[in-house]
User: Which sequence fits this backbone?
């Protein structure tokens, strides 16, 4: 049952939802996915953000959107340990309401910023491929940067009411769905998924057609362009479609049952495990987006080769320095060995010392 953690003293006592839904079957899966995506997503998106920023400085417009996407995923990956703790506690938030609001705000912003930036990537590639001559000089980094900043601002303003919501026990899990949540789910499905899906699918379809008709592109570049178009659509559908379909199902069930709490709770009991699994799929986008960068940028392989060469040279330099220091230390006689060879000067005997005592003193000094 979500929010079923009870404690005494200074520990948080969670208020359970009205639906007695058990998440035990999905607990291990969710925690494992969150930790794995955090471990992989943080370094992968750090690398992607650095490479994309470097390409943006060199004049790539597409890299501006990909850099914003990587920064967005990087911020979200940093909050995944908190979600793992939340799931491990039986969907009971024990870190205080403000932490829940900030973490949920990052989740919602990342979800729909990723979708908007994927739309921007698709449209930019369509313009660059289908209108290569007409768009020359019009596709600018400044415009891409302003659009990315506007997307961040818009999504942040839309989800700012998260900070005005009370947090009691669970963290933004409404079970069963009420009228307000149903309207919100309808809006998220229509504006946050269905409309962007049409944009992404249409733009990438046009990219594939334009690439196929182009006589100036080599066969290898055509294959890479088509793979990138397919990858964008596949990432979008795999990561975001199941989660939004569950939202639509919950909202439609509320409308169909007229808010009947018993029927809605029975539905939540049936889709509870699947809902958590689909939520985990949205998290996987933090690892899938760096793969998209590798496919979308022509210089990605050269960049990785350069990083590998630099890393190999740095490692070889460290190893050479270590071996040099080791040889120097072996060539230089240590004080212990000098003392063991009895080459240290013998201490001067005190006045009045007998000859036998002088011999024993020399033996002790060695």
Assistant:
């Amino acid at each position: 049952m979500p929010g079923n953690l009870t404690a005494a003293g200074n520990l948080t006592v969670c208020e359970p939802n009205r639906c007695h839904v058990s998440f035990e079957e999905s607990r291990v899966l969710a925690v494992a996915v969150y930790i794995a995506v955090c471990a992989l997503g943080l370094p992968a998106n750090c690398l992607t953000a650095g490479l994309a920023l470097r390409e943006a400085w060199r004049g790539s417009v597409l890299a501006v959107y990909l850099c914003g996407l990587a920064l967005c995923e990087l911020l979200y990956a940093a909050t995944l340990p908190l979600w793992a703790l939340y799931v491990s506690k039986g969907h009971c938030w024990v870190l205080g309401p403000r932490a829940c609001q900030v973490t949920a705000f990052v989740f919602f912003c990342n979800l729909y910023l990723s979708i908007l930036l994927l739309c921007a990537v698709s449209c930019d590639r369509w313009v660059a491929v289908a209108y290569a001559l007409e768009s020359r000089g019009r596709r600018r980094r400044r415009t891409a940067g302003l659009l990315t900043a506007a997307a961040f601002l818009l999504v942040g303003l839309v989800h700012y009411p998260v900070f005005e919501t009370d947090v009691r026990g669970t963290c933004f899990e409404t079970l069963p769905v009420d009228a307000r949540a149903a309207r919100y789910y309808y809006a998220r499905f229509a504006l946050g998924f269905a409309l962007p899906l049409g944009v992404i699918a249409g733009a990438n379809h046009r990219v594939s057609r334009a690439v196929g008709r182009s006589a100036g592109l080599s066969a290898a570049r055509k294959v890479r362009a088509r793979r990138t178009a397919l990858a964008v659509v596949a990432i979008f559908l795999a990561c975001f479609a199941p989660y939004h379909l569950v939202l639509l199902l919950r909202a439609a069930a509320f409308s169909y049952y007229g808010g009947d709490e018993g029927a809605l709770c029975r539905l939540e009991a049936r889709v509870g495990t699947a809902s958590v699994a689909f939520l985990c799929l949205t998290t996987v986008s933090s690892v899938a987006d760096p793969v998209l960068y590798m496919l979308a940028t022509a210089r990605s392989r050269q960049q990785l080769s350069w990083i590998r060469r630099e890393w190999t040279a740095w490692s070889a330099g460290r190893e050479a320095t270590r071996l040099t220091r080791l040889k120097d230390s072996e060539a230089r006689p240590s004080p212990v060995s000098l003392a063991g060879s009895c080459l240290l000067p013998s201490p001067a005997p005190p006045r009045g010392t007998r000859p036998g005592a002088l011999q024993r003193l020399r033996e002790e000094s060695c």
Observations:
- The chain has two domains: 24-298, 336-366.
- Residues 94 and 243 are 25 Å apart (CA to CA).
- Confidence is low (pLDDT under 50) at residues 1-13, 336-347, 357-366.
